[in-house]
Specification:
Blueprint: H1 16-19, E1 49-57, H2 60-66, E2 69-77, E3 89-94, E4 100-104, H3 109-120, E5 127-131, H4 147-157, E6 161-164, H5 167-173, E7 180-188, E8 194-206, E9 232-240, H6 254-271, H7 276-283, E10 299-300, H8 302-312, E11 324-333, E12 338-346, E13 352-356, H9 365-377, E14 384-388, H10 405-425, E15 432-440, E16 446-458, E17 465-476, H11 482-501, E18 507-508, E19 511-512, E20 530-537, H12 558-570, H13 581-593
Parallel strand pairs: 4-5, 8-9, 10-16, 13-14, 17-20
Antiparallel strand pairs: 1-9, 2-7, 3-4, 3-6, 7-8, 11-16, 12-13, 12-15, 16-17, 18-19
């Protein structure tokens, strides 16, 4: 069948700063009219505005009046792809009763079922999402993508339909990160004490909001960082642009904010001639303090983490060569909560089967569940088998996100084991199946931290940056599986390295120009510098056995640490990522001319 399409060329706007101007083309007449629009955070007063988040604390004007020095800097971070190697795929089969069997590369099968049902006017019970192995996620596989299209084609053709995205489609039309512009204005005393901070962040959200129904970045309130700031104002705008819709990435928004925040922090320190590490020490938040957005923190072990990174990174030692430098950056985040559950069956022969609703995207989730059941039930690891459930056979689960799985799913496993042990003690017959589900609260008063020290060498003739060594220190509790834990750290760092020095979706006129993995430069094994990990076991984690989250703590400080190291080595501060030889060379020439 031949399909003919007529296209009407419409006016377009690609830059979010331009899109907010009154004379810019209006992409959507009435954003609030769309089903699922987050009406409580819509930015309808902004031309092409989509959503706005805002926080305020203290008296901002008074804070700036108290300041001896006020500095303002702006930063830009381009769009990036999550970099999973398996492209998204969907299969739909509709049986004779009209029931839909779905398979898709989604880490969130229950969300896929919900979104497909809502989009097609179906009931949840009409759909069974069968879980498949997911070849990488990194935040990018939590939506239905082309599942509704596969459903419509299967319904029309009365045959099963399979859709597999090409990697060109992945890089040009999936859900990459939002191009982001961050402006930070801070006031401080002459001795380096922060008095005030004002932040405005603008994200190019893309032409549609389908990849993110809530349509904002969940880590936006972390832009205050691990610092005590008595007076602050934060505004985060999502602006519609004629570009690929943005989506989630490992700690959504965090690498953009952290790059800006931690580079700005170094600039503040250099303005008063203070060592960047000492400036951080002076302003760090402690347990019992209020963070930058006004939350009282019960757990905030950033100081020992920073000190561990500085010591291991040789901070303060003489430079090994004239063109070498070191940079430091910190990152802190909360742990996510939400719905989770498990199904555990005890057999008469002393074996146990766990049916998990949580998709293991390569992080070792099912292995950790196996370890927990073996420990709690007092049996060898070989006596426990973990199988992947689906939307028919297990309780609702939100999927891996926000470094939450060991906390939420782990608690469900622990509580199911408690019920299992009690039932066995009470004389229950075997086999016995326990189904447990809960909604784990997000601990609002807890932040976990990482710190990184990077050492680089800059070629002054070409601007080429070579990352020589990175030390990454982490605030950890009990480590349930050391191999998986270190894998998260190593993989997270490599992600952060790519964001820092190689990765960028290059666009022109709203079109992606480097839509293949030959031109979109993911780091390879040859790009990885010496990496040293320091684990600071402070205890007090919210997870089982006092475990703390790790999944999103290794990738977000890397770009800032490297940028600050470049500034130390070459005397030039970069305000845009990635840190390419061209940008460094241009900054060096500009510095010479100035």
């Amino acid at each position: 069948m031949l399909i003919e399409i007529d296209y009407e060329l419409l006016p377009a706007v690609f830059d979010p700063m331009e899109a907010m101007k009154p004379d810019a083309p209006l992409i959507h007449e009435d954003v609030a009219s769309y089903v699922g629009a987050p009406v409580d955070v819509l930015a309808t007063d902004v031309h092409n505005g989509q959503t706005r988040l805002a926080w305020a604390k203290g008296d901002l004007d008074e804070g700036f009046r108290q300041a001896d020095i006020i500095l303002e800097h702006s930063f830009a971070v381009p769009s990036r792809h999550q970099g999973y190697l398996e492209p998204f795929a969907s299969v739909i089969s509709i049986d004779d009763t009209g029931r839909i069997q779905a398979w898709c590369s989604s880490k969130a099968p229950f969300r896929a079922r919900l979104q497909l049902a809502q989009a097609m006017g179906l009931q949840d019970e009409d759909i069974r999402v069968n879980v498949v192995s997911v070849g990488g996620d990194f935040g990018g596989k939590g939506d239905t993508r082309d599942l509704p299209v596969a459903y419509l084609l299967a319904k029309m053709s009365e045959r099963p339909v399979k859709i597999v995205m090409s990697y060109w489609e992945e890089l040009t039309a999936s859900n990459p990160t939002h191009p982001t512009f961050v402006t930070i204005k801070s006031g401080m005393t002459r001795d380096g004490r922060l008095t005030s901070r004002e932040v405005r962040t603008v994200h190019a959200s893309g032409a549609y909001g389908a990849m993110k129904p809530r349509s904002f970045l969940s880590t936006s309130h972390y832009v205050g960082g691990g610092y005590k700031i008595p007076n602050a104002s934060f505004e985060f705008l999502q602006v519609c642009t004629n570009t690929t819709p943005g989506g989630y990435f490992r700690a959504p928004g965090a690498h953009q904010y952290t790059f800006a925040l931690e580079c700005h922090t170094d600039l503040l320190a250099r303005e008063i001639g203070m060592d960047p590490a000492e400036f951080r020490r002076m302003n760090l938040v402690d347990a019992g303090d209020e963070d930058a957005v006004g939350r009282d923190l019960r757990v905030a072990d950033v100081r020992p983490v920073l000190e561990a990174a500085l010591e291991a990174g040789g901070w303060g030692e003489p430079k090994a060569a004239p063109n070498r430098g070191k940079g430091v950056a910190i990152f802190g985040r909360q742990i996510g909560g939400g719905a989770a559950g498990t199904v555990i069956t005890a057999e008469a022969n002393g074996t146990f089967t766990v049916l998990s609703p949580t998709v293991d995207v390569g992080t070792g989730t099912h292995t950790i569940e196996q370890q927990m059941v073996a420990t709690e039930m007092g049996v060898p690891l070989s006596n426990v088998r973990v199988s992947q459930g689906d939307t028919d056979s297990t309780p609702f689960d939100e999927g891996p996100r926000a470094s939450r799985v060991t906390y939420t799913e782990g608690q469900a496993v622990m509580k199911a084991c408690e019920q299992m042990k009690q039932a066995i003690q009470d004389g229950a017959n075997l086999p016995l199946t326990i189904t447990f589900e809960h909604d784990a609260p997000q601990p609002e008063d807890v932040m976990y931290f990482s710190a990184q020290v990077a050492e680089v060498e800059v070629d002054p003739e070409t601007g080429q940056v070579k990352v020589l060594r990175v030390v990454t220190a982490h605030d950890v509790g009990t480590i349930i599986n050391p191999i998986a834990h270190q894998g998260q750290i190593d993989g997270g760092f490599v992600t952060g390295l790519g964001l820092a020095v190689t990765e960028e979706l290059v666009t022109e006129g709203g079109q992606v120009l480097n839509g293949n993995l030959g031109d979109y430069k993911l780091p390879t094994i040859a790009d990885i510098p010496s990496l040293e990990t320091v684990l600071v076991q402070t205890g007090g984690g919210e997870g089982p056995y006092q475990a703390k989250s790790i999944g999103e703590l290794a990738n977000n400080a890397t770009a800032a640490a490297i940028a600050n190291a470049v500034a130390d080595a070459a005397g030039v501060q970069l305000f845009e990522l990635p840190i390419t030889a061209e940008r460094v060379y241009a900054a060096l020439i500009s510095n010479i001319e100035a």
